[in-house]
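Sample 3 of the quickstart, ligand pyridoxal-5'-phosphate:
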Amino acid sequence: MDNMQMYAQLGISEKVYRFGEEVLASLRERFDAIDSTAEYNQGKVIAAMQKNRVNAGCFAGTTGYGYNDTGRDTLERVYADTFHTEAALVRPSIVCGTHALAVALSANLLPGDELLSPVGRPYDTLEEVIGIRKSTCSLAEYGVTYDEVALLPDGSIDYEGIRAKIKPQTKMVTIQRSKGYATRPTLSVQQIGELIAFIKGIRSDIICMVDNCYGEFVEPIEPSDMGADMIVGSLIKNPGGGLAPIGGYICGTAKCVERCAYRLSAPGLGQEVGANLGLMTSLYQGFFLAPTVTAGALKGAIFAANIYEKLGYRCVPNSTESRHDIIQAVELGSEEAMVAFCAGIQAAAPVDSYVTPVPWAMPGYDNDVIMAAGAFIQGSSIELSADGPIREPFAVYFQGGLTWYHAKLGILMSLQKMVEAGLVTL
Ligand SMILES: *Cc1c(COP(=O)(O)O)cnc(C)c1O
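Result:
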């Protein structure tokens, strides 16, 4: 049996398969560049593991207080060395990305301080952390104020606007690398570096934090290589490599990370406590696999952009743009197309492939939302998934894929469902 017959068995028609192969033929050079970045990043991770003498003892489970947990402490050294920071907090007790960001913010902002977002409105869940939307226990409730500077209409950074908004009480800036569910461009590490240099040039003691979600290992350098005081993210995205079942990280200066540790556990306890509950193997092995897993997801995103752009749909980023995160938005133009696309992603999954995603009224959203995911780790978005609100421009946000081949199948299956629904003719 050849590959085409295997795809036929999975439900992909010859026409869809051939269309995919034609698109792929034009992407070899870009895929080579992605592989080269993955190879470089793989070296960074292995070097950090070797330097810190990772050994079987690191994988032992601990319980209770978790004093002298060498597995946990060594993993934090591995993260710190990979991302070139003085310190790192990498914990299963950080329950998600929002939690990691909330810890980093609340640990380093005191009453009277101001937080500035120089790249527009931050990710939805941070609105309640900051208090942009009124919320119990928000930073606003503790007397921390907030200001923001929108990106310019062309998506570039409004430097003069930022200069005008930096006040004596501005203590920290939060820079979101990924576009999240906005249509602004994702920032490159280079752009983030320039922004940090500009801010430090105005006042060197302003803490620069980067929300690094979905960006890890996409480029050979991270924002921490470009002057960020803290980079923050989720382990059920890129750096968990699909194996971490939970967790978040904060890597940065010793001073900032120490405060985060005290905020996460308790003043006086800090980083010394926190049993690993037997999760260390997954966290180490996931981090080890993360560069290649991220590369696979990136290939999937580029493949999707090239397929759908060729069919006349607007893609963000477009088919040729350089990539700084793993998210791909495709504007499908109708609810039917979103449903068909998501049905394909779901049907290609190793888990829950037999269910059909339908739009539903998710709490906290104005419109119905459709979501497709068949993941080993619940809610993991380094695994192949797609979602989007049912409203203009009817865009699906597509990300992940633990292997390139699974991402490829998912995209071909989405196209297959679009063809079957009569929405696309090849
Ligand atoms: C995913 C994400 C977060 C955090 O989300 P969680 O679901 O809490 O992990 C924050 N910022 C951005 C840009 C994200 O993509």
